[in-house]
Every structure is written in C-alpha cells, then in structure tokens.
Write a structure and sequence with these properties.
The protein has about 240 residues and is mainly α. The protein has 10 helices and no strands. It has helices at about 1-30, 35-40, 50-75, 80-100, 105-110, 115, 135-150, 160-165, 175-195, 205-230. α3 packs antiparallel against α4. The two termini are about 20 Å apart.
C-alpha cells in the first residue's frame, strides 16, 4: 500500500511544480501592476534565463532517457514499432536541444552558413527562427498537444495493445499539456488577430514558458518510461 501511494505521489509532485510556476508567472505578467517587475531583465536576456537553461536541460534529459528506452526495448526484442517510436522521440528531443543552444555556435564561435544567416530573423545558428517560421510557434505547440493527448488514449488504432501500452503516457502529465494547449491558442490569437488589447500584450512572452513546459513534459515522460524499464515493471497501471 505504501509503495503504491509513493508511486502515485511522486509523479503528482513532478507535475504540480511546473504548473504552479506557470500560474505564478501568468499572474505576474498579466497584471499591469507587476508586469514590468516580473519581466525585469527577462526581455533583454531571454537566452540566458532560468527558463531557457531549464528548457535545454529538459530536452537533454529527454534525449538520454529516450535513448535508454530505445536501447532497452532493442535488447529485450520489443516490436520494431516501439524501437521506431523511442528512436524518433530521442532524435526529436536531441534536435530541439541543439536548436535551443544554437548548435553550440556561440560557444565554438564558428561562422553561421550564409544560407542560414540570410533568412534567420535573429541572426542565430537555428532553423526554427527562419523568417517563414518566426512567430508561428503556436502551431508547433498545437502539434505537440495533439501528439501528447494521443498518448493518453487507452489505445490508438491500428497499433496493437501490447505495443501501445509501451508508449502510453501517464495521466499525471495531462495537466501540463492543457497549459501548453492554452498557450498555443493564445499565440495563434496573437498571430492572426493582432492582439489589440493592452492587457493581453504579455502573450508574446509566453513562448519561453511554452517551450519550457514541453521540455519538462518530454523529460518526465521519457524518464518515467525509463524507470519502468529499469524496474522491469510499470510504476502503476494507467487508469482507463
């Protein structure tokens, strides 16, 4: 009984931390009285804030945990579908992490290729800041939410039940996806409506929060799956 209780409490604590942080951030930046104070140097040092560093660390953890899951499933002879799933997840997390650190260009100091520099809105060694993709992160957040919510389903046709159970996300993580979905709607509203309302101007500063939550969800999802494999048993059977 104690073991089962601990198994339920631990993921809940993992979820409530980022949720409370997001709510506190929203309460501060959407309040005109605390807007300037809450942003502070954030708007001028966006690439070096706690949120940005945490995002990189989150995707790094997701990469390592995802690679561990892929290796363990390969070693155990799991379905090729599961190998493709975790390998694809690992590759995606790695690519996003490298995008977040600008492919180490600020650290190594190499020249940005002309074909990237010519179309990069922020003069960085990144692909997601291409002029055609700039300010459209709401669509990426929405795509993440669709994929994440699918992983909460009991099963998705046409995948076999035994395969799907190896991918299925714990319901504890759903709250984070709901927050990301809300941010995606706000970003799309800001993009296509133009946001004429002054009280909603902090929407532009939700980008880093959205990315941070996606990184956190990815790290938590992969880490929980890795722990299941390490223990060779599920942490707790998912609820129907």
């Amino acid at each position: 009984m104690t073991v089962m209780t601990n198994q339920r409490i631990a993921p809940a604590l993992l979820v409530w931390g980022p949720l409370l942080a997001s709510l506190i951030w929203a309460a501060l930046v959407f309040n005109p009285a605390t807007y300037e104070w809450a942003l502070g140097r954030f708007r001028y040092m966006r690439e070096y804030t706690f949120v940005e560093v945490g995002t990189v660390m989150g995707f790094a953890v997701a990469t390592i945990a995802g690679a561990y899951c892929a290796f363990q499933h390969y070693r155990r002879g799991s379905s090729w579908l599961t190998l493709v799933f975790f390998s694809g997840f690992t590759l995606a997390a790695f690519l996003v992490a490298m995008e977040e650190v600008q492919w180490a260009q600020p650290l190594l100091g190499y020249d940005i290729p002309d074909f990237i520099a010519a179309t990069n809105a922020q003069d960085e060694m990144t692909f997601h800041n291409h002029e055609g993709l700039q300010s459209r992160e709401g669509w990426f957040y929405l795509a993440f939410c669709v994929g994440a919510f699918a992983l909460f389903l009991p099963r998705l046709w046409p995948f076999p039940q035994d395969v799907w159970s190896q991918w299925r996300a714990r319901k504890d993580l759903r709250a984070i996806v709901w927050i990301v979905l809300l941010i995606s709607f706000m970003k799309l509203y800001d993009l296509y409506v133009g946001n004429p309302f002054a009280p909603l101007k902090p929407i532009r500063w939700t980008t880093e929060i959205g990315e941070g939550l996606i990184a956190y969800w990815s790290a938590a999802f992969a880490s929980l799956k890795a722990i299941e494999l390490f223990k060779d048993e599920p942490l707790a059977p998912p609820s129907m």
